[in-house]
Every structure is written in C-alpha cells, then in structure tokens.
Write a structure and sequence with these properties.
Helix content is about 30%, strand content about 25%. The protein has a 9-stranded mixed beta sheet. It has a 7-stranded mixed beta sheet with strand order 7-6-5-3-4-8-9, with helices on both faces. A 4-stranded antiparallel beta sheet has the order 17-18-19-20. Among the domains are: about 240 residues, ANL, N-terminal domain (Rossmann fold); about 100 residues, GMP Synthetase, Chain A, domain 3. It is an alpha/beta fold and about 550 residues long. Helix 3 links the parallel strand 3 and strand 4. It binds adenosine-5'-diphosphate. The site of adenosine-5'-diphosphate has 20 residues, from strand 14, strand 19 and strand 20.
C-alpha cells in the first residue's frame, strides 16, 4: 500500500523562494576586489536571480545549456547560482586557478554557451576565447563603469543586462532529477571529469549540511564562505544557508589573514568554512598580531575544514586562542561533497580535551544520506577497529553515478558503491580516519606507512609551516618516506630536531629517511599538496644516499 502524502519536486528554486520569503531581510554581504563591501538581502538576491533567468532567455541559452563562471565569492556569483539553476540551465563553476590547457579542455567538454567572469579575469578569458568557439557571450560581472578591456566577442556587461531584464520570472517546475550544477574534478591524473549534480541531490545534501551534527547552520548564523564557490558547490553553503536563512559573507578574492579577520569581526561571523591552508596562515598571523587584534571580540564558534586534513596543532590553536571548535569534514567533488563530519558524540561530553582533539583529527562520522564502507582489495568488508586500513567506498543520494558524457565508463561496483581511492580506518565509534590516497601510501618492504599521519605530526613541530611526505625509491625497502618541509618564516633548518620530534610519536620504521627543506610546497588548484610534482622532483632522492650509506 502506498502512502498518501504529497510529493513536491526538490528544487533549488524552492530554497531561494523560502529564504526570500521567510528570511527576506537576512543579509548577504560581499566584498569586491577593491575591498568595497556590498550589502544585499535574500529578497534582493532573489529578484536579481529572476532577472538572471530572463537574461539567459534573452541570450538564447537553451534549457539544460551550460553557463560557466570564472569568479570569486561575491553576490553576483551567488545570483548566478540561483538564477541559472532555477531557470533550468546548468551552472558550471570553473576553477580559475587551473592551468590554461585544463580550462580549455573543461569548458569545451562542458560546451559552455556563456561565460560570466570577474573583471580581474579579463586577461584569462582573452586567452581562452580563441579556443572556445561554442561560447556565445562573455559577460563581465560588473557595472558599465567598471567594464574591463578584453578582446572577446561579444563582451557584455552584467549590470546592464540585468537592468534590461524583467524582474518577474516564474521558476519552472523542473524534474527534480534535472541537472543543476557541474563541477570538474581537478584531474591530477588524466583529464578532469565532470560531476553533474541534480536539484534533488543538491537539496538533500543541503539538509545534511544544515543538520546539527552536520555544519549545524541556523537562522542565527553568519557564515564566512572562504571555500570558493567554484569548489564542489562551496560545500553546499549557498544552498544550505538559504535553507535556514543564515547570513552569508562572501570574501571576494582577498583571502589574506587580515582581510579574513576584519570580515569575521565586522560581520559577526559565527561559522566559517575553508581549506586548512587558509586557516594555517590565519592562525600564524593571529598569533603574531595578538597584541593589536582582539580575538575575544569575535563571535566565531565553529570553523569547518576539509579537502586536506587539518593538523592537530591547528585544531588546538583554534581551541586555545579563540575558543573555536574545528569541525573536520571529508568528501569529494564526486560526493557533493559532504560524507563524513567530525561532530562529537554524547560520550565526548566527559572526555578530556586531548581525547576530543583525537576525535577531531579524524575525518568524522558518516552523515545520514551517504553511506561509507571499508573494503580490502577484493571488496570484502573490513572491521571498524580503528586499525585495519582499507579503501573507502561511498554511495548515497548525493554521490556521483557516472561522470558527465560517460567519461571513465562505469564507476560503480555491482552494488552501486563508488571507489574513493582513499585509504582509511574506521574506529568502533564510526569515525573515519584517512591514512592516505591509495596512490600516496609509502610501501616500505611490504608494510604501509601513512604519509598523512607523518605530515600531521611534522606540522606540530614549532618551526614547521607545512610538510609533505612522499614515497621515495629505496634500493632495499622499495620505498621509504621522505619528509619535505617548508619552515615558518625566520626558522632555521634543523633536520635532527624534526626527526627527534617525530621519533617518540611514531613507530621507528615510519621515521622519514631524510628531511628536505624547500621555500614553498607545490599545491593543486584546490589547495592540496601536489605530490605528483614532488615525486617527480624527489623520487630518486634517497637512492644515492642509501647506496652510499
Ligand atoms: P579534487 O578536485 O582536488 O580531487 P576533491 O575535493 O574532490 O578535490 O578531493 C577529494 C579528495 O580530497 C578526497 O578523496 C581526499 O583524498 C581528499 N580529502 C578531502 N577531505 C579531506 C580531509 N578532511 N582530510 C584529508 N583528505 C581529504
């Protein structure tokens, strides 16, 4: 017997309608490239999003057509988030930090019909345009007075088009499974692949983000969105904040610590989300400037971080310096991205501070709606004992079922599970701990060494700013860990001090065979350590040394 309840499609436009109706005066604050603060509300964003929808009709973008953005976090980008998807077109958020060839590949593959870009990217679009004949319009996200020079055709002005577009637009009642946004994986191996989200997956994912043991968003929150809008839907914040009427603070291109601090202070931010690299810089700056800034005046209570593992020292510093709880999350572009979040359990109420941090360094527990499992190379389930390492597999309502245009073929196993390529343990409480990307594990004489664990420890050393461990070739053990370190400004290189620091904290045979000091470590366009590059440079580093030893 079927139930007798209504079934309404889960659409992104309904999120916006809700926020614009029931949280109409809640602010959306954004800071432009020039530092100017722009204040808007959900009601205004909704009206302008409707104008965007009419603009797309005028530009002749067909339903389902792809509309690209090359833009920082700002109110216009947010309007496109809602306007493009609400109108049944697909928003393709492009990461402007990708290499030129990758951008051309991605935008051609997506068949982007229009590109909305921040004026600062005018030189970039000029380079891209000759390679992208399918783009019918290049729209600068600014007013007529700020139009950049760019040899692209046609070059149009967002504010002019918006003013010419009617403010009324009835959001179509789309199939909830219709595509809404498109995001490409960074493709550290092979070509980038497109992940095509749907309205349904996006709305369900937003519920999980809002949940108390998710990011715990509410109407009382003011959220600093440091994670870029072009990275995996900015972890759902544009959607989940609208779902509960939270204020959003969009920082634009300036992500230096002082700029972040002033926004946190002036906009009363209670929550902030971004990758650990940003917080690493922020905390170092906050510590150095303690005398002249007032951390106690901040309302910040939660920072959420993911993409790479936030080190223990960062979690402790947030707690000790600012009374901030770091919520550690794990996911992938392919998983919308939220799968696990490190919210405490009831039993943590009485736990010692160190034990809470032990929990926070792990990647968190599965949220409802996405499932994880730990398997051996043959696919058999492994125990949740916190020790056994296996591959993480995921499935769920916001996990990819295949890549755009079938790239990569079938990516699910017979039971619908997606292989993440991440090696992890799961403890008896259900907390997942990533030990490595499968391809980054150091295989020393048949035993596995976790590069992430050594990196996390190394950055707890007072002189270390950032650390990477790679598998370096070794004549006897096949691979041994090599630690590559960027020191904090002013620190003197001292290998022995770092090795001594690690020695008591990890098994002896995990100790890196050597430490290399570098001025800076290479990163991917999404802020991850670019280990392929480090391996290219240092894979043979130990061979000569080991032979001579
Ligand atoms: P990219 O486009 O760079 O692949 P993703 O965000 O899709 O970006 O990357 C997903 C991968 O990032 C995961 O498979 C995992 O290896 C890594 N990752 C994500 N969150 C964390 C985390 N909290 N700790 C460690 N690694 C993480």
């Amino acid at each position: 017997m079927l139930g007798l309840m209504q079934q309404r499609p889960l659409l992104i436009s309904s999120l916006l309608d809700y926020a614009a109706t029931w949280h109409c005066r809640r602010e959306i604050v954004s800071r432009g490239a020039d530092g100017a603060i722009h204040r808007s509300t959900y009601a205004e964003i909704a009206t302008r999003s409707r104008r965007v929808a009419n603009m797309l009709e005028t530009l002749g973008i067909a339903p389902g057509g792809r509309v690209a953005t090359l833009a920082w976090n700002g109110h216009r980008h947010l309007e496109l988030y809602y306007g493009v998807t609400g109108a049944g077109r697909v928003l393709h958020t492009v990461n402007p930090r990708l290499f030129h060839d990758q951008l051309v590949y991605i935008m051609d593959h997506a068949e982007d019909a229009a590109v909305f870009f921040d004026p600062v990217f005018a030189p970039l679009v000029e380079h891209l345009a000759p390679h992208l004949p399918k783009v019918r319009a290049w729209i600068a996200l600014c007013g007529a007075d700020a139009m950049p020079e760019a040899a692209v055709s046609p070059l149009l002005c967002y504010e002019t088009l918006l003013a010419d577009a009617a403010p009324d637009f009835a959001w179509p009642e789309l199939d909830e499974n219709a595509a809404s946004t498109l995001c490409y994986t960074s493709g550290t191996t092979g070509n980038p692949k497109g992940v095509l989200y749907s309205h349904r997956s996006t709305v369900l994912h937003a519920f999980a983000a809002c949940a108390t043991d998710g990011f715990a968003f509410s109407a009382r929150d003011s959220i600093l969105v440091v994670v870029p809008l072009f990275h995996a839907n900015a972890w759902s914040i544009p959607f989940s904040a609208a779902m509960c009427g939270a204020k959003m603070v969009l920082p634009g291109p300036k992500l230096d610590p002082e700029s972040i601090y002033t926004l946190l202070r002036d906009e009363g931010c209670t929550k902030a989300g971004g990758i650990p690299t940003i917080w690493l810089m922020f905390l170092a700056w906050a510590e150095a400037n303690r005398g002249r800034i007032d951390l106690a005046a901040l309302k910040l209570r939660h920072v959420f971080a993911g993409g790479t593992a936030p080190p223990r020292a960062m979690i402790e510093k947030f707690r000790d310096m600012m009374g901030v709880f770091l919520l550690h999350a794990w996911g992938m572009t392919e998983t919308s991205p939220i799968v696990t979040i490190g919210a405490p359990l009831a039993r943590h109420a009485d736990a010692a501070p160190d034990q809470i941090v032990d929990m926070q360094v792990k990647q968190g527990r599965q949220v409802f709606g996405a499932e994880v499992k730990l398997v051996d190379p043959l696919g058999a389930a492994l125990p949740h004992d916190g020790k056994t390492v296996g591959e993480l597999k995921v499935r769920g309502n916001w996990v990819v079922s295949g890549y755009f245009k079938g790239e990569g073929g079938n990516v699910l196993d017979a039971d619908g599970w997606f292989s993440t390529g991440d090696a992890a343990t799961i403890d008896p409480d259900g907390y997942v701990q990533l030990t490595d990307r499968l391809k980054d594990i150091v295989k020393s004489g048949g035993e596995w060494i976790s590069s992430i664990e050594i990196e996390n420890l190394a950055v707890s050393h007072p002189d270390v700013f950032e650390a990477a461990v790679i598998a370096a070739e070794h004549p006897k053990w096949q691979e041994r860990p090599l630690l590559i370190v960027q020191l904090k400004p002013g620190a003197e290189p001292d290998k022995q001090s770092i090795l001594d620091f690690l020695a008591g904290r990890i098994a002896k045979w995990w100790l890196p065979d050597d430490v290399v000091f570098v001025d800076s470590l290479p990163h991917t366009a999404t802020g991850k350590l670019l280990k392929t590059e480090l391996r290219k440079r240092y894979a043979g580093y130990l061979l000569g040394k080991a032979a001579g030893a």
